[in-house]
Design a protein that fits this description.
The chain is about 75% helix and about 0% strand. The chain has about 60 residues and is mainly α.
């Protein structure tokens, strides 16, 4: 005799698996680590400081 399967539980488990797969795909596509975000922020700040250092005073 075969085991009975609760279809509601099966459906929910299938939805959870699909949602997890979508989340993993999005994290690869859009996600960055905290270290990457901080490095980019530091690079932008340094570039802004360099640009601001090269500005001349306007005589207006």
């Amino acid at each position: 005799m075969s085991n009975t399967i609760n279809l509601n539980a099966f459906r929910k488990q299938k939805a959870r698996t699909a949602k997890r797969a979508q989340a993993d795909e999005n994290s690869v596509k859009f996600g960055r680590t905290k270290a990457q975000k901080e490095l980019e922020k530091a690079q932008k700040a340094k570039a802004k400081a360099v640009l601001d250092g090269h500005k001349t005073e306007s005589l207006e």
